[in-house]
Amino acid sequence: MKLELIDVIIIVGYLVLTIAPGFYFSKKASKDLQAYFLGSKTIPWWILGISNASGMFDITGTMWLVSMCFVYGLKSAWLPWIWPTFNQIFLMVYLSVWLRRSNVMTGAEWLEKRFGNGKGAELSQLVVVIFALVSVVGFIAYTFKGIGKFSQTFLPWDLAPDTYALILIGFTSLYVIKGGMYSVVITELIQFVIMTIASVAVGVIAMNLVSPEMLAEHIPEGWGNVFFGSHLDLDWTGIINDVNNKISEDGFSWFSFFVMMMIFKGVLVSMAGPVPNYDMQRILATKTAKDAAKMSGLVSLVMYFPRYMLVTGLTILAIVFLGPKINTETSFDFEMILPYSINNFIPVGFLGLLLAGLIAAFMSTYAATVNAAPVYFVNDIYKKYIKPDGSRKLYVRASYIASLVIIVLGISFGFVIDSINSVTQWVFGALFGGYTAANLLKWYWWRFNGFGYFCGMMAGLVASLLLPFLFPDVQPLYAFPFILITSLIVAIGGSLLTKSDNEDTLIDFYKNVRPWGWWGPVKQLTMQRYPDFKPNDNAGRDTFNIVIGVVWQFTLVVMPIYLVVRELWPMLIAFSIFAVTSVILKKNWLDKLEND
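Structure for Na+:solute symporter, as requested:
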């Protein structure tokens, strides 16, 4: 595709704009590790929330969502639960508050507050550092594969997708490494504004070009229904035959079973808390626990409506106008629907803005991921064991080197994976399955100790890494229960076969974080030592708010879909549910947040 001069000017101008904050904030960020990785905990919660939403508005995930919406229609609104998207509701309701009360810099440092300073605690910190680095390498590979495929369609040189990915990753790394979190957050704020404008405009363009009657002629029966039975019951025969093969390859035919598995996995993963990535970093960077909760709630509120206007707009344009072409190709790559749609239907001038917005989506996710990872090595390994008496500048320089090493590893992994879907399924299905058991127990069971955490995490990590090699044809989500059970048995066994943690450590953790769950003996000891202490009895209220919050979040997904396909009554019903659930959350969650 040949870009017009105005499109090139817009894209180049945007790229220059993104680099500037990195150099502007470099002096401020290099003050110390907390400034570099957490912005000295001075950034307002609403900026952190928009930054977090921007980091989740990634181009690779958007390409995947467009391909899923094309194939599965409105039922695709359920598929992001594989990540799961509703983990933000668990964070919003109570987990962000618990995490921020710990007042630490990293997930590994949090484990010291939970398990103390013994051998078990050291092993638990080591394994979470390993997991953090493995997961970040996986995320970099995920973004690498997506931006390469996307760029090949639009950039003017005839290069391989991986070569384009190398160029853009190198460019983005400049401002990430130089400016730290200050740079990342401010840049993501700019990026989110660009992405939102571009996304809404694409939805409007699609609404003007595709009427409901035109769409109805090019989709199978059931495509426009968000609800489902035991089977998917979508038959593309005679419309786009290759889509049936895609459904079979994905393994989603038993759709109700697949959704139940996503809910089962999603609830457990969400209760385990955030993995050690940029989501956790944003929570720890807030000023107070209350701000952390509001920040997590803002993510859902601002992200889904514009993103799904973009996803649905590009999808219906592709179905109506590219469907015949797709039907004639022997092997069509459905992950390329997003760039194909842009290539054919977005006008000159606006194309530059949209491409800048989508490049921004890539850069924001990549930047947030890279900025969140090095702190685990520098703070929890290098500073603690190798150079405990180093200067602040030495630790910041070590962060630069750690960032480069992680980037190289992620790129190397990106070269060997085949598709976006394969790495998406592995990261969110298998890898997160290995993370769940140990991190679930750490919040809710007092007897769980550092040795149990280490054993459970290692068992889950090894199982998830071996899965693609030993069982390459198994859908990672279906392997989740086996990975979970394996790591759960090992984690509980490791705890019961070793001593419980120090009493003072448990009391201090329980008193400061105030979790609910199976904390009976520690609760009694805490109340004996601190007679004025008030335990957390809000488990019932939190559970109710989570159910309401998940419904609230789901309406934010389906409303823009109904709007773009111009289904007025379903959209109004979704909006009514959104309004009612918003009022309930205001009264039963937001108004009752404590000021720590």
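The mean pLDDT is 81.
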